[in-house]
Amino acid sequence: MIKKFLNKKEKNYAVVNLNKNFKENSVDDKFWIYCDSCNTQIFRKDLEDNLNICPKCNKHYDFEARNRINLLIDYNTFEEFDYNLEFKNILDFPDYEKKLLKYKKSTNEKEAVITGIGLINNIKVVLCVMNPNFMMGSMGAIVGEKLTLAIEYAIVNKLPIIISCASGGARMQEGIISLMQMAKTSQALSKISNSGLLYISILTNPTTGGVTASFAMLGDIILAEPNALVAFAGPRVIKQTIKQDLPKGFQTSEFLLKHGFVDMIVNRNEMKESLYNILNLHGYTCEKNFCEEGDLIVYTEH
Predict the structure, then answer these.
(1) In what order do the strands lie in the sheet with 113-120?
(2) Mean of pLDDT values over 237-261
(3) Is 286 labeled as ligand-binding?
(4) What's the rounded Cα separation, in Å, for the pair 156 and 165?
(5) First CA to last CA across the chain, in angstroms?
(6) Which segments does the record annotate as C4-type zinc fingers (predicted)?
(7) pTM for the predicted model, two decimal places
(8) CB neighbours of residue 125 within 10 Å
(9) What average pLDDT does the segment 7-36 reach?
(10) Residue 24 confidence (pLDDT)
(11) Facing residues of 34 across strands?
C-alpha cells in the first residue's frame, strides 16, 4: 500500500518554480524531488525550508525574486520603486502583448525586475532583484529604465546599490531597444563610480547574454551563488562555434572565481550577512544612528 501511494501520479497541484529543475521520477513529485546534481531524492519540504538549496549537495536552485528580497532585507522595510512602469509593443512584435500578459498573471509582477530601498541589518541600501520567472528575467526597456532610476536614486541619496542578477539576456521582442539598455545601465553605473558609492553585483543562476555583458559584471564587488551559470553565449553555442571541448565546469561561478572574474562565492543563506559585512567595511552605517549588538547599542556616525 505504501509503495502504491508513493508511486501514485497526481497532476493537479501547484508547484512553485521547482519542476523545471528536476527530472521526472517514479516517486510522487508532490512530496519528493529529484536533484540532478547529486542524483538523490529529496523531500520537497526539506528543499523549500532550505531556501531551495539541496541539503545533500548544496546545489542552489531557482529562488523567487520576492523571496530573495525577504531574505536580504530586514522585515517590513522594503519600499518598492516604479511598480507600475509598463512597456508598449512599439515594434509590433507578434503576440508580444499576449506573452507579457501570460507572465504578468503567472508571476503577479509587471516586469522582470523589482527595485526599491530597504535595510540590511539597519543599513539603508537600494536593492534591485531580477525575476527569472518573468520571461527568463530578460532585459527590455522597462528593466533598463527601472534599473537606471534606481541607480540615480542611489546617487542622489548617497546610498550603496545592490543588483541581484538572473537573466537570459536582452529581450528579443524589443530588438535594438533592448540592446540599448546595456549602454544605458552601464553609463548610469559609471556615475555611481564617479560619486564614490558602492555597487555590489550578485550573480545567480542563470546570468547570461546582454545582462552579463553590461551591469552584471560592473560591480565594485561581484558575488555569486554556488554553481551559477554565468555567460554571454551559452556553452553549447560556443562549442558548436569553435568545434572544441570546453574546460570542465566552464562558465560556472566556481570557474569564474578561479579565473578572477568573481570576488567571492556565497551561499544563499549567508548572503545577507556577507552583504552587511561588506557594507560595514566600506563605511556604511546603520539607520537611526545606531546598530544593535545583542543587548548593547553602539552609536555611530553617518
Answers:
(1) 79-81, 113-120, 123-130, 161-167, 199-207, 221-224, 264-265
(2) 90
(3) no
(4) 23
(5) 65
(6) 35-57
(7) 0.84
(8) 22
(9) 54
(10) 52
(11) 41
